[in-house]
Write a structure and sequence with these properties.
The complex is a heterodimer of chains A (167) and B (398).
Chain A: H1 9-28, H2 31-49, H3 57-78, H4 99-118, H5 121-133, H6 137-144, H7 148-166
Helix pairs in contact in A: 1-2, 1-5, 2-3, 3-6, 5-7, 6-7
Chain B: H1 5-12, H2 18-30, H3 32-49, H4 70-84, H5 93-96, H6 108-117, E1 139-150, E2 153-166, E3 169-173, E4 182-183, E5 186-187, E6 212-221, E7 224-233, E8 236-244, E9 250-256, E10 262-274, E11 288-290, E12 305-306, E13 309-317, E14 320-326, E15 331-338, E16 345-347, E17 352-357, E18 360-366, H7 370-378, H8 388-397
Parallel strand pairs in B: 3-11
Antiparallel strand pairs in B: 1-2, 1-10, 2-3, 4-5, 6-7, 7-8, 8-9, 9-10, 12-13, 13-14, 14-15, 15-18, 16-17, 17-18
Helix pairs in contact in B: 1-3
The chains are: A mainly alpha (167), B alpha+beta (398).
């Protein structure tokens, strides 16, 4: 049980929660789905930690994350629902210091986010893992269960398409 | 000279071998097309990397004040005190090292599912969404999310809650909730309470114990005005409920052990209407949550009460049955399956205690504070195996 090389569920939530959220947000483009995904991943991690054998923890975590995301996509495809709009109340408090900067950066990122969402799923996933999460090609290859050559190709082609769309 | 554009992107990421890097460098010297493409790729890469790293929203990460691993701490304390006395108690079981995959003959997950489906508490609990809204002649749907932490189990729960006005009572059908009746500013319970009798309950009505309000104060909770209501029974405080003044939603709930420590925490982290918002036009004086069961109850010879909690219903499972006990605040399931269980003990992966007795494997599953858990298993047939768990059991229960 108390193998120090196996993080606790709380450790995972604290150290990886933000990355998973950013991954999910950039893939889905909305915070609701992203929050749902983080919660689902954390639940799966908690269930799975007992049977986790020490190895590449990150690889294991990102496989779980990716599977949770794909399951969610499949579920949504079966039962289409329109995502609830992000509540303006959840935006950063306009009176807090730096709030304008935060809002500006969010708006500036909108066109990039939109271009990202327009990419084919495989390309978007590889780019988010590489440039948002900061995973190496080898880690991405493990997570998506594909050869490194495929990772290289997807990132490359994704970036080319992005550049075309961003002008 | 052939182009190898894929290498350009990989080079930006430092994901090329030395030989590839040298090849690219040589190639770029003589190829304007690839130099231009490299610039484009670098621009796209920089654009994505310029996106702000977003903070994890509140209510997802286990903030220390929401997710409490109270049971492991209590177990540790119990082990120390019991070890000092030279005995091994129930509290020590988690540390004795029972395999976490001990739950094989008894499907604890199924028991939890039944607890959830019957509106009681499994790993997941409820009560939080119980008093959410009182609708006026309206049917509406809400999406609720709550976080529950109990013993070493923490769960996020998404519920879709149907709210339908029936007569003077609002019925909220929620597969994870049990019903509670709150009347006249105080909290009282019971199936005979006022207009609850007008409600047709699909599935077994969970019992609600005779709790009384022992304290009530107004306080702010996460920016909301709330009434903190303390419920007690037999002179012992058992729960603190933070009831939102505007909506009457139970936004935060603590279940207490007999010594007043917090055993389980549940908190509503989101509650929002799906579709049209309904207007509350009545005082929030009576409300109820009922549940539709997906199981058909069966007759059982399980005890009708355990630790003062009534048997709500029993359901068949593979090779045995599950009895669900509850009193509106606490709930648990007793699983009884024919045959021996390979590894009895306290399951660490799930809140269950498993043992063999009288030709059956038994499990107690649920969110019980330690004092109630000990009373529950003390009222059930004692185990027959020889292991530290059984030794501890005999010392505690004779």
């Amino acid at each position: 049980m108390n193998d120090p090389s196996i993080p606790t569920w709380e450790d995972v939530a604290r150290t990886h929660g933000r990355k998973i959220y950013n991954y999910a947000y950039r893939l889905t483009g909305n915070s609701h789905d992203a929050k749902d995904l983080v919660q689902e991943v954390l639940l799966r991690v908690r269930r799975g930690l007992d049977s986790y054998t020490p190895g590449s923890f990150d690889g294991w975590l990102w496989r779980i994350t990716r599977n949770a995301f794909l399951d969610d996509v499949r579920r949504r495809n079966r039962r289409p629902t329109s995502p609830l709009p992000d509540d303006v109340d959840r935006m950063p408090n306009a009176s807090s210091p730096g709030a304008d900067d935060v809002l500006a950066s969010i708006r500036l990122g909108e066109d990039i986010q939109k271009a990202l969402l327009d990419l084919p799923d495989d390309f978007r996933e590889a780019i988010v893992m590489c440039d948002i999460v900061g995973m190496s090609y080898e880690e991405i290859a493990q997570a998506i269960d594909a050869p490194i050559g495929t990772v290289r190709s997807r990132i490359h082609r994704g970036r080319k398409l992005l550049k075309e769309r961003l002008g | 000279m052939s182009h190898r554009p894929v290498l350009l992107s990989a080079m930006l990421d430092g994901e090329v071998s030395e030989a590839e890097s040298a090849w690219v460098a040589r190639h770029l010297e003589g190829c304007g097309e690839c130099r231009s493409e490299l610039e484009d790729l670098a621009a796209a890469r920089a654009a994505i990397r310029s996106l702000p790293l977003l903070d994890l929203p509140d209510g997802i990460a286990p903030a220390d004040d929401v997710v409490m691993s109270l049971w492991p701490r209590r177990v540790a304390v119990a082990v120390m005190s019991v070890a000092a006395a030279g005995v091994v108690g129930i509290g020590a079981l988690g540390v004795v090292g029972m395999a976490s995959d001990a739950v094989t003959a008894i499907d604890v997950g199924e028991a939890e599912a039944i607890l959830a489906a019957t509106g009681s508490m499994g790993v997941i609990s409820d009560g939080s969404v119980a008093a959410a809204y009182l609708a006026d002649n309206t049917t509406a749907r809400y999406r609720a999310r709550q976080i529950t932490a109990c013993r070493d189990a923490t769960a996020f729960v998404d519920n879709t809650v149907d709210v339908t006005r029936l007569g003077s009572v609002t019925v909220m059908s929620d597969p994870l909730a049990h019903w509670t009746v709150l009347a006249g500013g105080s909290v009282s319970t019971g199936p005979s309470q006022g207009p609850i009798e007008t409600v047709t309950v699909t599935g077994p009505p969970p019992r609600v114990g005779e709790y009384t309000v022992t304290g009530e104060t107004r306080a702010e909770f996460r920016g909301r005005d709330t009434d903190i209501v303390t419920l007690g029974r037999d002179g012992v405080d058992r729960a603190n409920l933070w009831i939102d003044v505007e909506t009457s939603a139970i936004v935060h709930r603590e279940l207490l052990t007999a010594d007043g420590t917090v055993a389980c925490v549940a908190e509503l982290v989101e509650f929002e209407p799906i579709g049209d918002r309904i207007q509350a036009s009545m005082p929030f004086d009576t409300r109820a949550v009922v549940t539709e069961s997906v199981y058909s109850p069966v007759a059982t010879d399980l005890p009708s009460t355990l630790a003062g909690l009534e048997l709500v219903a029993a359901y068949p499972i593979d090779g045995g049955e599950v009895g669900v006990f509850g009193d509106g605040l606490f709930a648990f399931a007793v699983v009884r399956v024919e045959g021996a269980h390979p590894e009895p003990g306290l399951s660490e992966s799930s809140p269950a205690v498993i043992w063999e007795a009288a030709g059956y494997s038994w499990a107690v599953v649920g969110q019980l504070p330690q004092d109630l858990l000990e009373r529950v298993i003390g009222d059930l047939p004692p185990p027959e195996q020889t292991n530290p768990f059984v030794d501890g059991w005999r010392i505690l229960f004779g």
